[in-house]
Amino acid sequence: MTEITAPGTDAPADEATGVFVDHRELLFGIVYNVLGSVADTEDVLQETWLSFTARGGGAPLAGVDNPRAYLVRAAVNHALRRRAAISRRRETYVGQWLPEPLVAEDEAGTADGPALRAESVSLAMLVVLESLTPLERAVFVLGEVFGYPHAEIAEVIDRSPAAVRQLAHRAREHVRARRPRYEARPRVRREATERFVRAALGGDIAELMEVLAPDVTAWTDAGGKRRPASLRPVHGRDKVARLLTSGRGGPRDPVWRYRRVNGDDAAVLFDGNAPFAVLVLDLTPEGDRVSGIYVVANPDKLTHLMEGKA
Prior knowledge:
The chain is of the alpha+beta class. It is 47% helix and 15% strand. The protein has a six-stranded mixed sheet with strand order 2-1-6-5-4-3. Strand 5 (274-283) and strand 6 (290-296) form a beta hairpin. The protein is globular and about 65 Å long. Interacts transiently with the RNA polymerase catalytic core formed by RpoA, RpoB, RpoC and RpoZ (2 alpha, 1 beta, 1 beta' and 1 omega subunit) to form the RNA polymerase holoenzyme that can initiate transcription. Residues 124-174 form the RNA polymerase sigma factor 70 region 4 type domain.
């Protein structure tokens, strides 16, 4: 987490920094869900804090009746500007791109720091949100995830309430078309994850075929730096099973640990003490088969995982 240090020691700036810190967890949750990147979120929060503490000629709180609203508006607009840079990076990214996962430090899902405590949607939902326009995504996150009414969202993004309603409608319809309402119960998800890991780790193709749905899809994001990975999503039970049991480029000393990833039960693969990949599963409505597999193995997206945490 980026450390916040106030420029100088004057009381107004110190007070403004305290106000910012009080709202940091909320700001992190909103910006992360808009961007899908921990590193970019931290940069946006730093930009937000700098612009907040620098305003008003050294009196940042002067004329600010609602610091929360001011900070949310500033953070969202910094995030929307950052989306352009992220889109440019995506154009030259090697292979598939997945959001940077938020991983809790232990199996119970407890975490230290706003980067892990912040409210966030599932990794699979973040993938769906990538297909929205930046404004649609911001409206969806503020309205559907954080419960902001249209009138307040309109002030945040400087649009009319009518325009916000249209953006919200388009975003909801798009998400509903691509993301079923069904969410597996935590116990079902954990059991399915453990069964999948046992089959994949043991190279048991027969067991994998039982676990995988016929139309399963696997997304692997390694940034061109690790194998096995595919430059495109892999569709179908046979192809996915072969990908998972290829045995090419895996860790020499594999250790699986179960964690909460973006609020869902999931698994993290370590090579000794170093994080190697994060695995998140989507399940069929019955909860007995795996319909989607998301593997984040790009080491640049795993730097915030604590090494050696059991």
